[in-house]
Amino acid sequence: MERNCSSFSTVLHRGRLIYVEARLQGGAPWGFTLKGGLEHGETLIISKVEEGGKADLLEHPLQVGDQVVNINEVELSGSRQEAISLVKGSYKTLRLTVCRHALALKDKERVSSSVFLPLSAERNQLSVISIMVAAGTWLTPW
Fold first, then answer.
1. pTM across the whole model
2. Is residue 106's pLDDT more than 90?
């Protein structure tokens, strides 16, 4: 898929959190939907990203589950209605900052692996533990 040249995104790592700052150009539709908010007693998150849409074609695309932090440089209170108003008020450019956990990787960035560990040295039994790891990252299931 070809990336949109006028839109762009940057990533900031803050401990276990990743902040993605996205600037989408060209007007609606922006290619994502929101869910939750204070009105529903939930965190305001991205609930859907349209494949091939503006939010998907960024170098660092938005992902389902990303928490919306600010829109058009306005820090959000967590209200879905506030977020929708800010998004709808964006004419040609939408600036969006989302937050995700560093381990929240897209499926295509994950590699499935099986690890064989001895259960009992006396009986030579093996236990199979399947884990998901990111390429170049070591994770342990405990």
1. 0.68
2. no
